[in-house]
Amino acid sequence: MKDQIKDKMGTTGLIFNEPLLWEKGSPGRKGLSLPRRDVEEAPLDDALAGDGPDFPDLSELDVVRHFTKLSQWNFGVDSGMYPLGSCTMKYNPKTNERQASIPGFAGAHPLLPESLSQGALELMHDLQGYLGEITGLPAVTLQPAAGSQGELTGMLIFAAYHKNKGQQRTKVLIPDTAHGTNPASAALCGFKAVGVKSGPEGILLPESVAELMDEDTAGIMITNPNTLGLFEDNIRQVADIVHQKGGLVYGDGANMNAAMGIVNFGDIGVDVMHLNLHKTMSTPHGGGGPGAGPVCVTPELDPFLPVPRVVKDGKVYRLVEDYPLSVGKVHAFYGNFSILLRAYSYILSLGKDLKTASQYAVLNANYIKEKLKSHYHLPYDRPCMHECVFTDKHQQEHHVATLDIAKRLMDHGFHPPTIYFPLVVSGAIMIEPTESESKETLDQFIDAMGQIAREALECPECLHESPQFPKVRRLDETAAARNPCLKG
Ligand SMILES: *Cc1c(COP(=O)(O)O)cnc(C)c1O
C-alpha cells in the first residue's frame, strides 16, 4: 500500500529540515556591508548601550534559503487540490492579481478627493451593479471586510428596518444547517438566535419555520446552499411565511459559486444577502484576510445601507453620506478596495461564463459524490450543489475515523477536506472540489479516497499511523493546540 502511494504521487520530494534562524549562522557573519566609516568612532549614549537585541549573525544566502525553505513547507491551491468544504479554495487566475497591482489603483490613497479618484469610484459603482445583477438584489454596499461582517451588517439592517417601523424585534431564526457565523452575527447584533431543525432530506421544512415564526422575530438567516451542500428547495415558501409575519429573510451567499447566473435570490424571497468575494470572486484567502463581504439588498432596504455610498451623479461619481436611515459606517473608508478590484476583473473576464463556472462547481461535486458513495456513507443521497458531505459510518465499524481518513489523504498529495463540520451529521467529511479542478485531478482524488476506504478494511492500524510521508507526521492535536511548538 505504501509503495503504491509513493509511486503514484511522489509527494515527499526534496523537503529540507530547517532550524530556527537563531540556530543558524555563526558569530561575526554578515548579511550586508556598510560603507567605510568617515567619522570618528564614539561610544553609544547610555540609553542605547548594552547588549542590544539577540539577533543571529547571518549571511544574505542564509536568510534567503531559510525563508525559501519555509515557503516550501506550505501547501496552497497553486500546489494541489484543496477540497476544503465551505471554504471554496479554488484557483484564482493570475490575471486578476495583475489588475489589482496596476499602479494607479494600487497606489491610490483613500483620502484622495473625488475628482482624482473617478476611475476607482466608477469601478466600485459598476461592481455594485454587477453584484446586484448576479444576486437579483440591486442595492449594494461593498464595505464589509468579510462574510461574517456582511452578516453583521445585514443584522444591523434588519434592526434598522424594524426600528423604522416602530418595532423592536428580539429573535432571529437560524436553521441547524446554517454556517456557524450566522448565530454569532445575530447575537452580536443583540438578537437571540433561535435554532430551527431541518427535515429528513437535509433541508428546511416550511412547517418548522411556521411553528417558530412570530411577531417578535426579526427574520431568518438561511445559508443557501446550506452547509450540507444542498439547495434549500422550500426557500420561497419559507420566505412567504417569514414575510407574512413582517420578518425579513437573510441569505448567506458565501457559496455563490454554486449559483451564479442560475439563481435569482431576489425572486426566491431573499431580502438581504452577503457574498464572499474572497471565496467566489478570485481573492486568495486564508490566514484571516483581507477579504470582502458585500451586502446586496432589495430596493425597499436601500435606505439602510452603510455610508458613504458611491453614486453616479450625471457623468461624475461621488461619495454620498446623506442617508438618514443608514446603519452608518462598517469599515474604514470604503472597504478593502484591492479585493473589489479582483472581483471586478474576475467578473469582466468571465462574463456569461460565470454561469459555466457555477455549473462546473456543481458538476464536480456531484461527480465525486456519485463515485464515492459506494465507499463512504452519504447521509443525504440527493443531488448536491458545490460540495458533498460523507461520514465515516462504514469505516467506524473498523475503528477508522474521519480524522484518519483526512490524515491519509496527505500521503496521497491532497489537502484534507473539511472534517467534523457541519455538526448536523456525525463524523462529517465535507468535500468541495470547486470548479477549477480537471477531471484527471478529480479522478486521482476519487482513486485516493477509494484506496483509503479499502485500506480501512485491510489495515485499519496503518490509517491510525497516517500520514506517513509529510515532513510532520501524526500530531497530538490537543497538545499541538495547547502547547504549540513553533520550531521546525
Ligand atoms: C466562509 C463562510 C462564512 C464566513 O465568511 P468569512 O469571510 O470567513 O467571515 C459565512 N457563511 C458561509 C456559508 C461560509 O462558507
TrEMBL record:
GO BP, one annotated term: glycine decarboxylation via glycine cleavage system
Record has Oxidoreductase as a keyword: yes
Example of a GO MF term: glycine dehydrogenase (decarboxylating) activity
Domain of life: Bacteria
Keyword field contains Protein transport: no
Known EC number: 1.4.4.2
Keyword entries, A-Z: Oxidoreductase, Pyridoxal phosphate
All copies of domain Glycine dehydrogenase C-terminal, residue ranges: 357-458
Pfam families: Aminotran_5 (PF00266), GcvP2_C (PF21478)
Reactions catalysed, as given in the entry: N(6)-[(R)-lipoyl]-L-lysyl-[glycine-cleavage complex H protein] + glycine + H(+) = N(6)-[(R)-S(8)-aminomethyldihydrolipoyl]-L-lysyl-[glycine-cleavage complex H protein] + CO2
Transmembrane segments: none
Single GO cellular component term: glycine cleavage complex
Sequence ranges assigned to domain Aminotransferase class V in this UniProt record: 164-286
Purpose: The glycine cleavage system catalyzes the degradation of glycine. The P protein binds the alpha-amino group of glycine through its pyridoxal phosphate cofactor; CO(2) is released and the remaining methylamine moiety is then transferred to the lipoamide cofactor of the H protein.
Record's protein name: glycine dehydrogenase (aminomethyl-transferring)
Annotated source species: Desulfosarcina alkanivorans
Source lineage: Bacteria, Pseudomonadati, Thermodesulfobacteriota, Desulfobacteria, Desulfobacterales
Gene: gcvPB
